[in-house]
Automatic annotation (TrEMBL), chain B:
Primary localisation category: endoplasmic reticulum
GO molecular function: cis-stilbene-oxide hydrolase activity
An example Gene Ontology biological process: epoxide metabolic process
Name of the protein described by the UniProt record: Epoxide hydrolase
Species name: Xiphophorus couchianus (Monterrey platyfish)
PANTHER family associated with the record: EPOXIDE HYDROLASE 1, EPOXIDE HYDROLASE 1-RELATED
Residue ranges of domain Epoxide hydrolase N-terminal in the record: 48-157
Record GO cellular component, one term: endoplasmic reticulum membrane
Any Pfam family the entry gives: EHN
Active site: residue positions: D223 (nucleophile), Y373 (proton donor), H429 (proton acceptor)
Length: 471, 459
């Protein structure tokens, strides 16, 4: 009260000009604040983004498109395997620098061991049979043959079947989800998932686009069409890496169809709020919505986020600018392709793997699983088209694209794995994901959790769905 | 008020004094050992051995088989060179390589100059050494070391060498030329230990020149060669008589450079900017930042994961050709990205381009060549050599299509003794190979200027 009186006295003690100046400033500040708040509110008022349209086949678009769904079987031949073996035998190794671990990329000495296993022990015919244990299909959408597997729940009866689409990323594939599939199609308190796992066009058995411009919005629209064609009006989505962006776009395009969106990787907005929290976070985490675990995973910020990102994003830079050049050699050299892909399975599972002679690869994955994923890229020759996806998505400033400026309003679940490349705290995710139902700090796992920690990921997806279904 | 001024002057004086102290700084370095294991006991092997480039039927058959087995992927419709090397044109290049390119004849061409190898710090260093046949009465040939870059090689200088060792005009200077291969490139052995950066290469080349008996010499370089020769000038300024470069990106943009970027468009005269400078620098977001981002993906991946990046290229000659020749297209003229054939054969012959690629292929050096990026950038841009200026007389040839345009003001920040700054009529990043005559002329005029300066000093 006294202070207020003091202020009043001071104010009325000034002369008129000064008083007007102060009032003017106060009004201006209030107006600025109001405009700022309104502008920020406006940007997230958009509740959906337009579907758009596209056609990606070769040449001209025909009048009618075939909408049937055809069964598909993965095949191989003796010629294919012999060709692979011949190329492996003719590979020209370069010795690694002494004592360099995985710091210069995939260590050549360890690569020799992986290649030896691939050449002598890995059984591609057996793996193909294993791939075919789930039913595969292809259907033409927007001019491209889209590949997917479609798995119904194990038991029928009076359990509910919740449709769920899982979307992979790079350098992964539909195969990453083979361990989590049986866990999802089991009965959980009266419901089970009916799972659809497509391949992004340009990856694996999905045809590659022939026209420029195929970005995540196009992939999202194609996958929405797929779900519609399969007869699902409402469904769940799960994704990581590119799958995270594509499923997010799907939720932005048709929020009415998406019951729940589950992500294991989320890209945080840049922006003032993020910047402020980076500066204040280490000292007053609670003020900016950080938990102790957030602080532990985010800081030291420069080291973990900027420096590390620079060290790990060379592939992103070259693929976003010169994909045809970057992938050319990899389509002739299976050894080169394996090194390129498996280096990610090493570093992105745990950054410390870069100091190990063997990149820590076999600590969390089996060589059979890793090489099956590589074989999907090899046998389909899809490495270049998979890389083009980077250029198509980064061709203009990604922060200016309509989906980056629009919020996500469907119920969202986030699984934050500790060794994910970039940690995204809940407070950052909330800037765009306005309806976060669950945010879980996972105890272990990195960038490929479906393959590395299938049980942990499955449990989080299940609890998320249960929360939404109110079970 | 007066006190404030006094304090400012004292502080200013102190800063100038500290900066002056740096003037006498010479780049320091220590010996290294790059061979396998520990250095052996006993004397160093100082012998110089003759070397001949050779090939075999097996080598060619293996190359052809790999080409025949390549698995092409069609480029997107209407994408030219915007996504990298266009697959349709790549097939044409490979077809020429398979049927018309004569590697044996090119090997003979490579051997027209004498090659040698000598062991320095544990690795075999390869070089070409060309002595002039005749030297004008009363003069001696001027020793000149020329250092290549990536993805080039000593071969880039083959058009330039005769113009320097046997100039057509009797009034021109005659040079004795040494063209080494950077360790890890071509016929020079690759280092086996971590840490081989441009300063190590510079030190090794100093030892080479000393071993060849040169007390003083000139140096020329572009791309990595620019940095290696600059380091040579920083390591032993009294030994390097003159430094000629065609590439000089500022390593640490200081206050003046930054100011010139911000104000240069409005006040070009203030910074000595010519019309060309303004045209090539502005709009600076697009021309400096975006263009660099578009073209530096290779640098980013090679500076972080060279072993991964090069792995496939050492098995696939087609992949290697695409990777290397994409640079010869785009870095010669950015507009070539809009062409279906990347404009490759407008300035180069396929024979020359493929000979350079064959040097990488037959020596299997692509991975080690890429490691040089990690060794140089791995610790960031704060290396000691980046903070020390160059006092050796320098000549800069400014080619219009060089990757990064550097106006005179920027070059002078680092090269404090800039004797000549020549805006060239045409040419891009691989100027020595693309415009050898223009390059030879500039080296001639620069060397003449320095020689005259030296003469005046003696008198």
């Amino acid at each position: 009260m006294q202070r207020l009186q003091l202020l009043k006295d001071t104010f009325f003690g000034l002369d008129v000009a000064q008083q007007q100046l102060i009032i003017g400033c106060a009004v201006a500040a209030a107006a600025a604040g109001g405009i700022l708040t309104y502008a920020m509110q406006r940007s997230s008022k958009m509740r959906s983004i337009p579907l758009g349209e596209g056609w990606w086949g070769a040449g001209e678009k025909p009048l009618l498109e075939d909408q049937k769904i055809y069964p598909f079987t993965v095949e191989t031949s003796d010629e294919e395997i012999e060709d692979l073996h011949e190329r492996i035998d003719k590979t020209r190794f370069t010795d690694p620098l002494e004592d360099s671990g995985f710091q210069y990329g995939f260590n050549s000495t360890y690569l020799k061991k992986v290649i030896s296993y691939w050449r002598n022990t890995f059984d591609w015919k057996k793996q193909v049979a294993m791939l075919n244990k789930y039913p595969h299909f292809k259907t033409k959408i927007e001019g491209l043959d889209v590949h997917f597997i479609h798995v119904r729940p194990l038991q029928s009866g009076d359990q509910r079947a919740l449709p769920l689409m899982l979307v992979h990323g790079w350098p992964g594939s539909f195969y990453e989800f083979y361990k989590i599939l049986p866990l999802l199609t089991q009965n959980h308190n009266g419901f089970a998932f009916e799972v659809v796992i497509p391949s992004i066009p340009g990856y694996g058995f999905s045809e590659a686009p022939h026209k420029k411009g195929f970005n995540s919005l196009a992939a999202a629209r194609i996958f929405l069409t797929l779900m519609e064609r399969l007869g699902f009006s409402q469904f769940y989505l799960q994704g990581g890496d590119w799958g995270s962006l594509i499923t997010t776009n799907m939720a932005q395009m048709r929020p009415d169809c998406v019951k729940g969106l589950h992500l294991n990787m989320c890209m945080s907005n840049r922006g003032f709020k993020v910047l402020l929290s980076i500066i204040i976070g280490p000292y007053l985490p609670f003020l900016v919505g950080f938990s102790q675990e957030d602080v532990r995973r985010l800081f030291p910020f420069f080291q973990k986020n900027v420096w590390q990102m620079l060290e790990e994003s060379g592939y992103l830079h070259i693929q976003a600018t010169k994909p045809d050049t970057a992938g050319r050699g990899l389509n002739d050299s299976p050894v080169g392709l394996a090194a390129y892909i498996l280096e990610k399975f090493s570093s992105w599972t745990h950054m410390k793997n870069r100091d190990l002679e063997d990149g820590g690869l076999e600590r969390k994955f089996s060589l059979d699983d890793l090489l099956t994923n590589v074989m999907i890229y090899w046998t389909t020759g899809s490495i270049i088209s998979s890389m083009r996806f980077y250029k198509e998505n980064f061709s203009s400033n990604p922060n200016n694209r309509i989906d980056a400026k629009t919020g996500i309003f469907v119920p969202t679940g986030l699984a934050a794995f500790p060794q994910e490349i970039l940690h995204c705290p809940k407070s950052w995710a909330q800037i765009r994901y306005q309806n976060i139902v669950s945010y879980t700090f996972m105890p272990r796992g990195g960038h490929f959790p479906a393959l590395e920690e299938p049980r942990l990921l499955a449990n989080d997806v299940i609890q998320f769905a249960k929360a939404i279904e109110n079970l | 008020m007066f006190t404030a001024l006094l304090v400012a002057l004292v502080i200013g004086g102190l800063i100038i004094f500290l900066v002056q102290r740096r003037k006498n700084q010479v780049l320091k370095t220590e010996d290294g050992w790059w061979g396998a294991g520990a250095p052996p006991e006993g004397e160093e092997d100082l012998t110089i051995r003759s070397f001949k480039v050779t090939t075999t039927d097996e080598e060619l058959e293996d190359l052809y088989r790999r080409m025949d087995q390549t698995r092409p992927v069609p480029s997107l419709e209407d994408s030219q060179f915007h996504y990298g090397f266009n697959s349709h044109y790549l097939q044409k290049v490979v077809s020429y390589w398979r049927k018309d390119f004569d590697w044996r004849r090119q090997v003979d061409k490579l051997n027209q100059y004498p090659h040698f190898k000598t062991n320095i710090e544990g690795i075999d260093v390869h070089y070409v050494h060309v002595k002039p046949k005749t030297v004008p009465e009363g003069t001696k040939a001027i020793p000149l070391i020329m250092v290549h870059g990536w993805p080039g090689s000593f071969y880039e200088f083959y058009g330039l060498i005769p113009m320097l060792t046997e100039p057509s005009d009797p009034g021109q200077l005659v040079f004795e030329v040494v063209c080494p291969s950077i360790p890890g490139y071509g016929f020079s052995e690759a280092p086996r230990k971590k840490g081989f950066d441009s300063v190590c290469a510079a030190r090794i080349f100093h030892k080479l020149m000393k071993r060849l008996g040169f007390q003083q010499f000139y140096a020329h370089g572009g791309d990595w060669g620019w940095l290696v020769t600059t380091n040579m000038a920083q390591l032993a300024p009294k030994t390097v008589k003159g430094l000629h470069v065609n590439f000089a990106p500022p390593s640490k943009p200081g206050l003046l450079v930054t100011l010139s970027i911000v104000l240069g468009r409005r006040f070009p005269k203030l910074f000595g900017f010519t019309e060309t400078d303004v045209e090539r620098l502005y709009p600076c977001m697009e021309k400096l930042v975006l263009e660099s981002m578009k073209e530096s993906g290779y640098m980013h991946i090679q500076a972080t994961k060279p072993d991964t990046a090069g792995r496939g290229l050492n098995d696939s000659p087609v992949g290697l050709a695409a990777y290397i020749l994409e640079k010869f297209s785009t870095w010669t003229d950015h507009d070539f990205r809009n062409l279906e054939d990347g404009g490759l054969t407008r300035k180069f012959s396929l024979d020359d381009l493929l000979t350079n690629v064959m040097i990488y292929w037959t020596s299997g050096c692509i991975v080690s060549s890429m490691r040089f990026y990690k060794e140089n950038f791995g610790k960031g841009l704060d290396a000691p050599h980046a903070k020390i200026p160059v006092f050796v007389p320098t000549g800069f040839a400014c080619f219009p299509n060089e990757l990064m345009h550097t106006p005179k003001l920027w070059v002078k920040q680092k090269y404090h003794n800039l004797v000549s700054f020549s805006p060239m009529q045409r040419g891009g990043h691989f100027a020595a190979m693309e415009e050898p005559r223009l390059m030879a002329e500039d080296i001639q005029q620069f060397t003449r200027s320095v020689e005259e300066m030296m003469k005046k000093k003696k008198e």
